[in-house]
């Protein structure tokens, strides 16, 4: 608020005292000053200042301002009208009116006051108003200067308030850093950046989706993939023109998001022309990105702790099953074997089929439990399929010289377990084939999901398969891949050229009722 703090009132009244004393000094040199005028001016200004400094009610303050303006007009009338040395002093009295009205109302009151003064003094001097104004032409410069001053003050106050509000919004975002992995954190910071950057379009494109974060728009996905594929744009901060999803060039300010180890984890894209963002804008961006980096760091720490805890728990369960149920089944199988050999000849033909069937079921249960133990120790039961596949590709290609490239388009909040399992095993089997047989340098996996189907593509740049190898049953595990996909009413194709590479593409239909983004 304008002139509401005690310090601002001290400055204001101190300035008015200076103007009053300067007016008295100038008027004294003309020899027209009287002790009564001097005493009245000093006493009134002293009383007026003290009343304001000791706080008055709103009605009393309005009445005091009206008396101050009236006294100013009277003082001008006594000391020469528009030629009075107290003219600026009287205009400053209008500043107190701003405390009770809006800026628009204040401009109107000031304009009416500026017009009223020459009319009043023209009437008291028995002269026409326009002649009186012509004789006091320098009055127009005072009015011009006054309105320029208050307009500058208005603009400055509005600008300061705007920046202050932005700083308050940035300060309030500190709570996000205290609540890592909170749902909607990225969207919140993106909206905050949009407000701070004066409603410019803003996108936070993260290299890896947070497990608890709702997927962002298709435009975010497009630009994230574009940034991943263009290493030349991985600079710290830069302006660039990038093709939009519709093919048009968009002017963007790009900043790479770096964690505390200097590793990139995403990009900030702001729609802005070159050098359009001010220094303040960039400073605010850094404040927000500090919050984002703190959230990212906390998320990574919690994720590692969570993965470690889950791995320990799974290993414990797997070990308990191995030491308990598995050993019991093994013991039962031994007992069945002994029972089978100990059957008397007269009952052997009748009892042997039942014993063999039980033995078969025990072996199947034993095999299923061992598979379950293997799965418990594997990463494919991670909540996020994309994240699980990314981790699996890193594990398979580690220390092999093959560079994994993983892309995913679209997002579903929930999918059938058998579909996710089939996708995971398909990628796993195809990736192992690439490592064992393809002699490739790159392994490219792309998973796209729509409301209709899943599309899974595994591509390498290896030596390819010979035509006779593709039709051999069990060769490279192609039959297993095909049966797994067809069990879900899907289709799979294999394309391979020698010395060029192999591409495996699978299509799996989805249930229409399953949520899709």
Automatic annotation (TrEMBL):
Record field: transmembrane: 7-27, 33-53, 83-101, 113-133, 139-157
Classification via Gene3D superfamilies: 1.20.5.1930, Histidine kinase-like ATPase, C-terminal domain (3.30.565.10)
Keyword Zinc: no
InterPro entries: HATPase_C_sf, HATPase_dom, Sensor_HK_TwoCompSys, Sig_transdc_His_kin_sub3_dim/P
Recorded superkingdom: Bacteria
GO molecular function (one): ATP binding
Boundaries of every Histidine kinase/HSP90-like ATPase domain copy: 418-512
Keywords: ATP-binding, Kinase, Membrane, Nucleotide-binding, Phosphoprotein, Transferase, Transmembrane, Transmembrane helix, Two-component regulatory system
Presence of keyword Lipid biosynthesis: no
Catalytic activity: ATP + protein L-histidine = ADP + protein N-phospho-L-histidine
EC category name: transferase
Listed Pfam families: HATPase_c, HisKA_3
SUPFAM superfamilies: ATPase domain of HSP90 chaperone/DNA topoisomerase II/histidine kinase
E.C. no: 2.7.13.3
PANTHER family listed in its UniProt record: NITRATE/NITRITE SENSOR PROTEIN NARX-RELATED, NITRATE_NITRITE SENSOR PROTEIN NARQ
Protein's name according to its UniProt entry: histidine kinase
Provenance organism: Paenibacillus violae
């Amino acid at each position: 608020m304008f002139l509401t703090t005690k310090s601002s009132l001290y400055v204001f009244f101190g300035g008015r005292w200076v103007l009053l004393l300067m007016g008295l000094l100038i008027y004294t040199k003309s020899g027209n000053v009287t002790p009564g005028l001097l005493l009245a001016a000093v006493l009134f200004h002293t009383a007026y200042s003290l009343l304001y400094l000791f706080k008055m009610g709103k009605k009393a303050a309005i009445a005091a301002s009206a008396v101050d303006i009236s006294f100013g007009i009277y003082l001008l009338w006594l000391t020469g009208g528009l030629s009075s040395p107290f003219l600026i002093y009287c205009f400053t009295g209008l500043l107190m009116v701003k405390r009770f009205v809006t800026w628009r109302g204040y401009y109107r009151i000031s304009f009416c006051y500026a017009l009223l003064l020459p009319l009043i003094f023209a009437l008291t001097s028995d002269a026409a108003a326009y002649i009186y104004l012509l004789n006091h032409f320098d009055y127009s410069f005072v009015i011009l200067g006054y309105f320029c001053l208050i307009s500058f003050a208005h603009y400055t106050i509005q600008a300061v308030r705007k920046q202050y509000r932005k700083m308050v919004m940035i300060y309030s975002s500190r709570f996000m850093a205290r609540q890592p992995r909170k749902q909607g954190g990225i969207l919140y910071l993106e909206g905050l950046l949009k407000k701070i950057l004066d409603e410019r379009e803003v996108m936070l494109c993260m290299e890896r989706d947070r497990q608890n974060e709702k997927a962002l728009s298709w435009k975010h996905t497009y630009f994230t993939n574009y940034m991943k594929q263009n290493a030349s744009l991985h600079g710290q901060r830069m302006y660039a023109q990038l093709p939009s999803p519709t093919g048009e060039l968009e002017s963007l300010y790009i900043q790479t998001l770096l964690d505390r180890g200097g590793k990139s984890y995403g990009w900030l894209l702001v729609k802005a022309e070159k050098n359009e963002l001010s220094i303040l804008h960039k400073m605010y961006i850094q404040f927000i990105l500090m919050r984002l980096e703190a959230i990212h760091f906390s998320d990574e720490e919690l994720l590692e702790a969570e993965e470690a805890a889950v791995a320990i728990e799974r290993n414990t369960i797997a070990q308990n099953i191995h030491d308990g149920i598995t050993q019991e089944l093994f013991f039962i199988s031994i007992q069945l074997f002994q029972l089978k050999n100990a059957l008397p000849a007269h009952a052997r033909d009748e009892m042997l089929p039942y014993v063999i069937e039980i033995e078969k079921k025990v072996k199947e249960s034993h095999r299923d439990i061992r598979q379950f133990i293997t799965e418990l120790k594997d990463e494919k039961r991670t909540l996020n399929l994309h994240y699980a596949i990314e981790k699996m590709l890193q594990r398979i290609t580690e220390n092999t010289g093959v560079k994994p490239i993983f892309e995913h388009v679209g997002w579903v909040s929930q999918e059938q377990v058998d579909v996710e399992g089939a996708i995971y095993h398909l990628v796993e089997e195809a990736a192992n084939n690439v490592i064992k047989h393809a002699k490739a340098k790159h392994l490219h996996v792309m998973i796209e999901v729509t409301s209709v189907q899943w599309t899974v593509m595994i591509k390498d740049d290896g030596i390819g398969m010979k035509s006779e190898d593709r039709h051999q049953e069990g060769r490279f595990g192609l039959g297993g891949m095909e049966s797994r996909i067809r069990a879900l009413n899907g289709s799979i194709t294999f394309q391979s050229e020698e010395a060029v590479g192999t591409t495996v593409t699978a299509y799996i239909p989805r249930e229409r009722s399953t949520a899709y983004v």
